[in-house]
Amino acid sequence: xxxxxxxxxxxxxxxxxxxxxxxxxxxxxxxxxxxxxxxxxxxxxxxxxxxxxxxxxxxxxxxxxxxxxxxxxxxxxxxxxxxxxxxxxxxxxxxxxxxxxxxxxxxxxxxxxxxxxxxxxxxxxxxxxxxxxxxxxxxxxxxxxxxxxxxxxxxxxxxxxxxxxxxxxxxxxxxxxxxxxxxxxxxxxxxxxxxxxxxxxxxxxxxxxxxxxxxxxxxxxxxxxxx
Length: 227
Ligand code: DC
Prior knowledge:
five-stranded parallel sheet, alpha/beta
């Protein structure tokens, strides 16, 4: 049986950096579930699907195929042989992803894909509903939070580093809060802290400190590299 570490939290709480580092440390594959919601959204837009029409999105979602494989410590995704890269990291995708993620048929399909990834080995999976809906049985579940200001600042820094920053800090914060609101109030698998998940507020912690907090909280046998 594969072991799964589950990490949820709002945008910019540091889930990706923490998951990558913990995954590298333990030899668990990093799974970015948000990228699958972004791919679904990207495919909708490429095919002229109205993302505000849940029925159209639900029907289209059944036709999307994503190929997954492990590479360099993470699961990578391809659509028709092509890796989406930064095409799924644009402000337009940011805007349309939350409504697409409210559609139950989209969530069900992505949940199936994520559960199927245990065939590749031990995983560290980050998202919004991993601790509550996708892998609620995991003994290693975390809820990562940070202040809205800290999260917006991190997102903007990432965009500047990638050379795709075209929004002010205030715009980044507004878009992030708008997405949080949709993600936490939707009917199906909303973002919330699962009972039994360990909450970590990373506002005033360094990346190393958050990584250490996660490692310290894992079941003892996992830390020793035993199954
Ligand atoms: O983490 P992210 O910003 O890449 O996520 C993109 C969108 O997908 C965001 O609106 C939240 C949604 N999402 C979700 O509903 N469930 C997940 N497990 C992961 C992401």
